[in-house]
Amino acid sequence: MDWNSFVDAVDSFRSGPWVVPLRIVMIIIVALVATKVSTMAIRRVVAQATSKAGTLNVAELRNSTDSEDVSDQLLENRVSQRANALGTLGHSIAVIGIWAISIMMIMAELGINIGPLLASAGILGVVIGFGAQTLVADYLAGISMTLEDQLGVGDVVDCGIVLGTVDEVALRYTRIRDFYGVLWYVRNGTISFVANQSQGWTYAIVDIALKYNADLANVRQVINEEGQHIALDSSYDTVFMDPPEYAGLQDVRGDAVVVRVMAKVVPDQQFVGARLLRERIKSALDNAGLHIPLTQMQIVDERRAQ
């Protein structure tokens, strides 16, 4: 076979009817492989970032007088939540990018001129944009919340719609499980604020009603002494950061006075801390003879009164 015959054979091979389907299949295979590789790479990066995150010893932060330093250390310990949120965001962007490029390459193989299509897609995008403003807002809000570390997987947040633990942070929605076990899918564009109770530290607040004539000075002493006992108890190292303290008189009613007790606690432990406070403070007040008033109701028979 001479050279010209060889060239003709190669041209015939490259122009066969099966070449285009083969190229399309190859593009799809490459896209699938790229998706798998990017997913594995992102998971590995997230796993490495999580494994490198130092384990915070909360006991060392208890009773610290430098609140700013404590807050900085607790915020730096959010590596795991932030890595998981950024990993979800990166995976979504990678998948969308890979398949968008693959679809355009397939269209080119089918003989579709992409240039005019992209130009018309721009005009069509403007038209669709007016009808898909909420969808665009959801995506932009999701990217913004993730990059700004407003919330992360595992955080306890209140977004105005639901209070619960974040299960997933996606581009379009945030998945939150409330404290009744209900799973909420909240569109990111509808979240106007995020009250994150897992960043830095938070407070456990307990209001306790006492008899109207209770000696408030004695109440303060009993509560603060019990707070010091709690601070020295190592079993509460993962809950309380400061000794619980008497915060003051919260309310005055006709039958009782209400005092407030506050304690700085570890993120996500405010509900546990509040329950422990009620138990310990009630026992301390009972031992001191300071009891919660009993509500009494007097019923008068109007017929006998007449």
Question: What would the keywords be for this entry?
Answer:
306 residues, alpha+beta, SH3 type barrels, Alpha-Beta Plaits, 3 domains, three-stranded antiparallel β-sheet, 17% strand, elongated
Q: What does the model show?
A:
The longest helix is centred in the N-terminal third of the chain and has 34 residues, at 19-52. The protein folds into three domains: 1-112, no CATH class; 131-200, SH3 type barrels (Roll); 202-287, Alpha-Beta Plaits, CATH 3.30.70.100. The strands form two sheets. It has a five-stranded antiparallel beta sheet. It has a three-stranded antiparallel beta sheet with strand order 6-8-7. The chain is α+β, with helices and mostly antiparallel strands. A hairpin with a 4-residue loop joins strand 1 (156-158) and strand 2. It is built from nine helices and eight strands.
Based on DSSP secondary structure assignment, what is the total number of beta strands?
8
Mean pLDDT comes to: 77
**Which sequence of strands runs across the widest sheet?**
4-3-2-1-5
What is the CA-CA span between the terminal residues? 130 Å
Strand portion, in percent? 15-25%
Q: Which spans of ≥5 residues are poorly predicted at pLDDT below 50?
A: none
- Output the helix-strand order: HHHHHHEEEEEEHEEHH
Number of helices: 9
* Structural class by sheet pairing and helices: alpha+beta
Q: Work out the helicity level.
A: 40-55%
Structural domains: how many: 3
Q: What sort of overall outline do the alpha carbons produce when their principal axes are compared? A: elongated
Alpha-carbon Rg, integer: 32 Å
Largest sheet: 5 strands, antiparallel
